[in-house]
Design a protein that fits this description.
Strands 1, 2, 5, 7, 8, 10, 13 and 16 form an eight-stranded mixed beta sheet that branches. The protein has a six-stranded mixed beta sheet with strand order 28-29-25-24-31-33, covered by helices on one side. Strands 37-38-46-45-42-43 form a six-stranded mixed beta sheet, with no helix packed on it. The protein has eight domains: 2-121, Sandwich (Immunoglobulin-like); 207-276, Immunoglobulins (Immunoglobulin-like, Sandwich), CATH 2.60.40; 281-461; 466-572, Immunoglobulin-like, CATH 2.60.40; 582-688, Immunoglobulins (Immunoglobulin-like, Sandwich), CATH 2.60.40; 698-802, Immunoglobulin-like (Sandwich), CATH 2.60.40; 810-913, Immunoglobulins (Immunoglobulin-like, Sandwich); 945-978. Helix 1 (2-21) runs parallel beside helix 3 and helix 6 (915-941) crosses helix 7. The chain starts with a helix and ends with a helix. With 978 residues, it is mainly beta. The chain has nine helices and 72 strands. It is elongated.
Amino acid sequence: MLSAILIAVFLAGMANVTAASSSSSYAPSTSHVNLNMYVMEGKNQVGFAVNPVIYINASQGQYTFTDTGNSLNVSLSYGSYLVTVMPTLSIIGGAHYLTNKTYYYLDVNSANQAVAINLKAVVLTYSTVNLKNLNGETTTLMFSTTEGYNFFTKTTNSSSFSAYLPNGTMFYANSYYNSEPSQGVTSQILTLESKNTVTIELGRSAVNYFGAVYSKSGSKINSFKIVEFNSTINHYTTVSFNSGLYYISAQGGTEFMIAANGYKPVSITTSGTLTLIPSTSNVFKNYSLGKNLQTLSVVTHYNLNSGTAFPDMANSTVMSLSYQEALDNLSTGFVNDVEKIAGHMPANTYYSFMANNSYYNLTNSHVDMKSLVYNKYSLSLYTFANYTNTKMSSKDYKNLVLKVYQKGTQYTPSTVNYLTYINYNNINVSVQSASSSVTYGNPFEIMPVSKSSMVTVSFGKVQNPYFVNSNAVVYYKGMVTTSSVINTTARNTLVVVPYNTIFSINMSKTLYNPIIGQYQYKSPVSFMWKNSTTSYNGYNYSLKLMKTTEFLLTGMDSSGFSNVTNVTFIVLKNTESPNVNFTYTFNGKVHKVMSSTANTGTVSITVPQNSQVTFDASLSSLNLTYNKEKYSVQLSYSWMFPNSTLKGATVNYQFTTPTINGVPKLGMLNVTSAGNTTRSVQIKAIVNDTTNPSAVVTIQNPSNKNITAIPAGSPVILTANYSADKYYGKSKLSYNWTFMFANGTKIPANTANLTILKYDSSSSVWNRSAWVEVQFNLVAKIHISLKVTNPVLSGYDNISYTTTYSGPKLLVSGVHYSGTFSQGVTKEVQVNVTNHGKVSVTGLTIVVYDNGALLKSKSFTQTLAVNQTRTYDINISLANSGSQSLSFQASNSAQPNFVQKDGQLVKTVSVGVSSDRVLLVIVAIIVIILILALLYYRLTKGKFPGAARVRQQSLPQSNQKKITDQKQVPKKDSNTKQ
């Protein structure tokens, strides 16, 4: 019986430990230990084992060491250890040896120790394996010991192969077909036959179970283990699953159990969903320290359910008391083993409990077998032990530090909570700090830990707790403020509460224990409320008041020390509402709304659309007076705007839609006090439109089909029908069209370049129409601008197009002639014309203009292809001499006039006068000169009547007088008569 062997070894070692424990307390020394693992064939050492895995555990499991090798050097503190050497396959001198799992009790008691651990081995014999029912398939076979150690794996499609197998002992052959691995593993127990052969009958598993695992609450359990127990040979194996699903297969006679940490195990008898019920086993350790710290008593209570094997015994990984008992064969043997293991646990407590770094020594112990309650589903057992430590005294309580070994909950595969309680006999100290979670008080509890470790607990002088009432939490239905506490000291606290309303006050975070540095409220901590009419015990107090009420609150911490504070509840009536002041800010400008306006209940504001507006009501207030002192009540703020509710004294909001037709956007500000009184202010916002209309120019042909180009010389419709405004209908929009040349100058309407054909009859002028039909008579880049205006804002669409033309385009590319032009003289001129259009022309006319007047035209019948150039002769005669501007154009009936003008060539020529006219002019000039000379002569000689008078008038006045006198002498009588 493996457990009996283990216990025998364990007890032998315990004798040494017990003897050592009777000496005075000490701190253990360190030893250098050399461990050597030898393979034993019978009584002979045949050599070192090949890399076995080795586990070293102190007898209580405190220290764990794991390594691989056949010769290890380790440092261990003095004490007792259990060395476990796992099975291994070793080949030594050509022979194959299979060692079993070996337990060795190690007593470390000297500075240097060399230890030989002999591993019993089975010799493996080269054997023949015969397979039946292979049927041409491929199978995988796994050979393992009855302890579950897999020493050989083979995948084959042959009905026979060779392998080294144990001789003289049973072993397992596990197999499955590779084509159907989901059918599971078939297990068989085998021994070698005569002539070192073994026959394995292959087949599908006799038992197949599959399903899912859930907890009673309905949540899926992903991680669990299945224990496969064979009662015939008292052997078990465990298989881990991590997906929440299981699939197992085995020969008949195998029992299956599902076990998960923290749950009661369940047997598997059929496929399907299994539900596990939470269940936890506990090991309680109750320590009690004496007044002088020299005595220590320990009571251990094992309280295990069926889902936990007994700790520290062999086969504890089977995770079941009933299976553990079955492995121990008889219940009486199992109970005896339990008694022996439990009885020797106290012997090692001096390794698990220290006071000021000093251990306690065992004086006596016993297992109370009368307290044993045992069946297949649970076990309850008590053990008792007493210890002494003469180094300690009552004075050591002043700076006491305890170190207590706490086993981790994972010490066994199923969940075992190790719960430790420590009682101390000194009212002047209490627990001050701990390296793990503990409860405070006397006794105090060390909470379960996930990993085995030493927990350090420090003590300090007891101090009175004190109240931090700012941490008090007040709650009532509909409460919106975060605190109702308006003033607080350690002795006095004022709390605002609503009138005639049930409220509660929670003081769980107010009683501060300075020793442990924590707020305390759980039992044994107490809170007592008291005034002249009422008393109540509890940290969470619910009540309803209609007038201001005072309480005296007494708080007692876990050490039994207390303090007091006064708590006054001030009741606010509905008429005591906050005064509201707020500002709203946009574009850097602050606008104030004072309480004189806000308290009326309605405020009108004007803000821009789509601009962030900051609302700030932090200047609002509610003040009250108590015992002639003024206090401010905490306020809560709620802002409601279209599609948004915001919290806080300061908020940001954007009005995304403008005010249309004068209807304001509505908002609401609610300012609520801690006493649940509220003042509401309605906000009427006039939102100025800042969203420009969307102007969109759409080009269509006369059939109202959208086009992407503007053909020169053809009608097109320019429409604003796709223009829109997010808030105003089309009836509220107006339009303005502008057409410009590439240089930005406007194209005049109804000129050579632009013809207005039609527009919306509802418009008085064409450029303010929603659409206009036009014809651009030029091939050039043009700009089209559409301005769309709502009652407030305008939007623009500016596009540029180069008009297109697909007909003939005749370009006069050159004009040539010989000599010079003479007035009235006919001259032959050669005109070069190139077709730059996209179609050829048949026939054209050369037209010549002289200073804008038609001079000559001549038609030709030749075809001019695309990109072809021809020379055409034309005779012209210029009537006027001097500088003349001649325009040469090529026309065709398929070519618009504006294209013809675009292709003209203007040439300035100098026209000379003809010789006949020169001679005639000379003769005329000579005749004029002779006439003038004759006239002059006659005038000067008086040959013409009146010539003397003419002459006289041309003489000076004095000379005229002399002449007159000379003429009047013979007519003296006559002149006198006159």
